[in-house]
Amino acid sequence: LAGPDVFLPDAVEIGRRKADICAQHGLTGLYPLDNAVDLAAGDVSLAIFRGNEAMMDAAGAIIANLTPFRGPGADAGTVYELGYMAGRGKPLFAYSNDPTTYAERVERTHQATKSSGGGLIDRDGLVVEDFGLSDNLMMIHALDLHGTALVTPHKVPADIWHDLTAFEVCVRLVADRAAGK
Question: Would the pTM count as exceeding 0.70?
Answer without folding.
Answer: yes
